[in-house]
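Notes from hallway chat w/ T.B., transcribed later so I don't forget. T.B. wanted the structure written out for a chain they're using in a teaching module, and asked if we could keep both sequence and structure tokens in one place. Agreed to drop them here.
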Amino acid sequence: MSKKILMLAGDFVEDYELMVPYQALESLGFHVDVVCPDKKTGDTIATAIHDFTDYQTYIELRGHNFVITKNFDDVRLEEYCGLYITGGRAPEYIRLNKKVLDYTRYFFDKNLPVAAICHGIQILTAAKVVSGRTLTCYAAVAPEVDLAGGIYKNIAPAEAITDGNLTTSPAWPGHQAILAEFYKLLGVKISI
């Protein structure tokens, strides 16, 4: 099995939910292919910074540009040992792309490691892969988990839940937890 990770993203992906796992996985020696429907290698996507304040929901600010690392239509799924699904606003519209759902189902059909954070769970529900699974997400996505037959757990933003080959976290404060769980699923052992 190769050391390649497929990462699904799109315009207005949450900045930290793309940048942090991308950089962390690359630092461990994984090659991460970040793809977006209708985008090619070298195209950019805009990121958004979501922050938690005294408002009833998060606020959104413009983030960075991120350069796509792989042509979406050139993905060969058998090259990848895991899937990472980013959050932000991107999942709400990239889940409308049939190939995004097909790519996601492939990793579940093969029982390969999958990590999904925040609104990224919208791709899982659209792909119909959460039935009977325990998972978490940003609280506003919880009704979709329930409707898709998943078992939603409301946990602290800095935590993660793993059920079989799937690990999930509510938002970017959970990076340490979701990445630690994803590393375990990938068979990564880190010693200090």
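Follow-up for T.B.: The chain has six helices and eleven strands. Might be a good example for the class.
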